[in-house]
UniProtKB/TrEMBL annotation:
PROSITE patterns: DEGV. GO terms for molecular function: lipid binding. Keywords: Lipid-binding. NCBIfam families: DegV (TIGR00762). This is DegV family protein. The keyword Translocase does not apply. The keyword Methyltransferase does not apply.
């Protein structure tokens, strides 16, 4: 048994195989699709990724909610009662209140279990950027890192995880308040595709506009080449919103550059509610973001 347990959320969009490999515990976030409540389980047990995005394409509306204090208490209490400590790796505080909630839950449970340790780290990331962060920290634990060593590594790693992505449907950015209605309409008519990234504070920032889908996908690879710390030997994650062919295009480009440790996953319903179908996102360790 590990002396401490690492938790993260389903917003990390890690496939079940990677969760099992890294021995992570994942708390599902919630979403409401056309009035029906769902949990964002990594294995898609309540709704598949494809079915979810088909509903969005058909005009369904989706709202999301963060992990509740009760969810934290239910998940953390058995671990603490069993004599283990907890390292919690949270969804970006720049995008959600989940990190703040985890800190509140940690304080409450620390009083109940004064002999145990609970540390919460803000990933400043979303989707498989959060997933890559959690995966690499978990691999450190598997390599023998102590609680303090893993915690220090997580704090050093968080600012170094890079995330770049592009969306296909600008209207989802408009609904999320990240693009004006006029800009979304004009961009759609002109075939403009924004290229965005996650900044140092964990916010989504539009960085450039290119014309055409293929150019936006090429831009992700360009930024990887410019900032990746170890372009060929580092771990690289890529996620997509039900557009496997576009994802494969980027993966082929990366493999041509010598990338070997490359993992692909789906953008889950919680992140997908804001980015929409057709999103492709790329994540790696580098700098600057």
């Amino acid at each position: 048994m590990q002396p401490y347990v690492i938790f993260t959320e389903s917003t990390g969009d890690l496939p079940p195989a990677l969760i099992e490999e890294a021995e992570l515990r994942v708390l599902p976030m919630s979403f409401n699709l056309d009035g029906q409540a769902y949990r964002n389980w990594p294995d898609g047990r309540e709704i598949s990724s494809h079915d979810y995005y088909e509903k969005l394409r058909a005009g369904s509306t989706c709202t999301t909610s963060q992990v509740s204090l009760a969810d934290y208490e239910d998940a953390f209490t058995p671990v603490l009662a069993g004599g283990q400590d907890i390292l919690y790796l949270a969804f970006s505080s720049g995008l959600s209140g989940t990190y703040q909630s985890s800190c509140v839950a940690a304080e409450m449970l620390q009083e109940k279990f004064p002999g145990r340790r609970i540390a919460c780290v803000d990933s400043k990331q979303a989707s498989m950027g959060e997933g890559l962060f959690a995966y690499l920290v978990a691999r450190k634990r598997q390599a023998g890192a102590s609680f303090d060593q893993a915690l220090d590594y997580a704090r050093q790693l968080a600012p170094a995880v890079c995330a770049w992505f592009t969306v296909d449907d600008l209207m989802f950015l408009k609904r999320g308040g990240r693009l004006s209605g006029a800009a979304a309409v004009a961009g759609t008519l002109l075939g403009i595709k924004p290229v965005l990234h996650v900044d140092d504070d964990g916010h989504l920032i539009a960085m450039e506009k290119v014309r055409g889908r293929r150019a936006s996908l090429d831009a992700l690879v360009k930024h990887f080449q410019a900032t990746a710390r170890d372009p060929q030997g580092g771990t690289v994650f890529i996620s997509h919103g039900d557009c496997p062919d576009d994802c494969q295009y980027v993966m082929d480009k990366l493999r041509a550059l010598g990338v070997t440790d490359l993992h692909q996953g789906d953008i889950g319903p919680v992140i997908g509610a804001h980015s929409g179908p057709g999103t492709v996102a790329l994540f790696w360790v580098g700098g600057p973001r």
